[in-house]
Hints:
Layout: H1 13-34, H2 51-54, H3 61-75, H4 113-128, H5 130-142, H6 157-176, H7 178-188, H8 190-198, H9 202-209, H10 212-235, H11 252-259, H12 269-293, H13 301-310
Bound molecules: the ligand C=C(O[C@@H]1C=C(C(=O)O)C=C[C@H]1O)C(=O)O.
Subcellular location: Cytoplasm
Enzyme class: isomerase
Pfam families: CM_2
Amino acid sequence: MQNFMNSQDPLSLDRIRSVLVRLEDTIIFSLIERSQFAHNPRCYVKGGISALKDQGFDGSWLQWFLKETETFQAKARRFTSPDETPFTAELPEPILPSLNYPKILHPNTINVNPSIMFFYVHNFVPRITHAATLSVAAANRARGIMGEGEFDDDGNYGSAATIDVEILQAISKRVHYGKFVSESKFQAHPSDFIPHILKPNRKALEALITKPEVERALLARLRKKAALYARELDMRGDPLETEVQTNGQLDSADKAQKAAGKGVFRVDVDTVEQLYENYIIPLTKEVEVDYLLQRLKGLSEEEITALQSSR
Length: 311
Ligand SMILES: C=C(O[C@@H]1C=C(C(=O)O)C=C[C@H]1O)C(=O)O
């Protein structure tokens, strides 16, 4: 991440892109970790875990996990940092005084976490947990358990939600970094952007911020990393002995994987690439455009004219 308190040039596009590259590692490793556990769909629906009613909480298990986690993090001042965006609506004030971060971004109201949560729950989780869910199904059938609800649930609700929160916060940071990317590109050529902000034109702004060669290189790098990291984790030996929660032995599916020299950390390279291509990159670009559309808010005509003539 960036230390905004003493960063030499926080808006250097190279420095910003290096943060995005490092976030790839966090996201891929966390997706691989999540792939060990079954889908556990009851964790993503309101009332799916009845114990929460006793806590007076009527959301899903994952929403409760996020609220509890972010409540502590808010007290520790996490969300005063310009690169942090919470999922939870109401959070307590920090117990520490605010740090005087340098003013890097223009004031804005952008928070696309509801979209990130939606596509994570409906598109990410089922795909990255597919192999583990099949293993649980085989183990349950072997124990005579038939019928829905038992086939995609291994009981690892705490472990899975802990990783879900890590993934959601990493994706949120990555997508909202689009604000820094946009500020950097705007400052480099304000006169390119200003006409399409004054007369809002999302298509023109998206064309200006889109760098196809950067996206192509990123997707190629992702495929290599996803394959390498999954193999690395398996070569450490322990995951192959991961006991699924059903007291299962390594079931036939896992034994087949082991025999084929593949591991239990089965995250599919195509899945990682498509999650970026279909969700993370497009959402990042929407944040870039949304930010640009708010970039002149509060500026006087003189300030805008000065920007237009600056570069
Ligand atoms: C993040 C940038 O802006 C856009 C979004 C990208 C992404 O989400 O990976 C990559 C290139 C651009 O199309 C950038 O220029 O680095």
